[in-house]
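pls ignore typos typing on phone
succinic acid + seq
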Amino acid sequence: MLLPNGIRHLPGYLDHPAQEALVEAIRAVVAEAPLYTPVMPGTGKEMSVRMTNCGSLGWVTDKQRGYRYQSTHPVTGHPWPAMPQQLLDLWGDIAGYEKSPEACLVNFYGDDASMGLHQDRDEQDLKAPVLSVSLGNTCLFRVGGLNRNDRTLSFKLASGDIVVLGGEGRLCFHGVDRIYPATSTLLKNGGRINLTLRRVQP
Ligand code: SIN
Ligand code: FE2
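k done
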């Protein structure tokens, strides 16, 4: 399968112990910064994915103010928890970018959740890649081109897989069509966690 230039799929990048350790770290993040249900700008429609963040900035969306980064959790008002060292190390090993990531968006997909086709374009620094980590149940990931109507291709992302959206592929449309229930035992209650590491400021 030929992915668009700049998009890399690294299947099974994280071994089982590394996945377990990352889930533990994310549990600690979620204990401090609870998952909440984001809503779309304008319509106020709820997304099926629940979200939180770690790092100095977090990506949020609401009806009134839309998509943006901010330094505090929208429900608790507290600063986001620090980014776990494993994620900083992963960025150092893969991103090929001198500055560290400022935001890690934590997406939790129940087995019925999905995410529509979109671009990650709320960052000021588009030279840095977005690095995406999959944990738990397998999903069907879809990636297209730079225009919404470009042809898309889809492939499965399993627990431990990493996707890099960088270079010419940094602004490619992408989304998650579906989750395949019971395809992993990593998360006791099922579902899927996706972590995306982003550099926001130049
Ligand atoms: C995202 O684009 O924010 C999430 C991608 C994924 O869940 O794999
Ligand atoms: Fe995205």
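Residues 7-198 form a domain with the Jelly Rolls fold (CATH 2.60.120.590). The CA atoms of residues 129 and 166 lie 4 Å apart. more later
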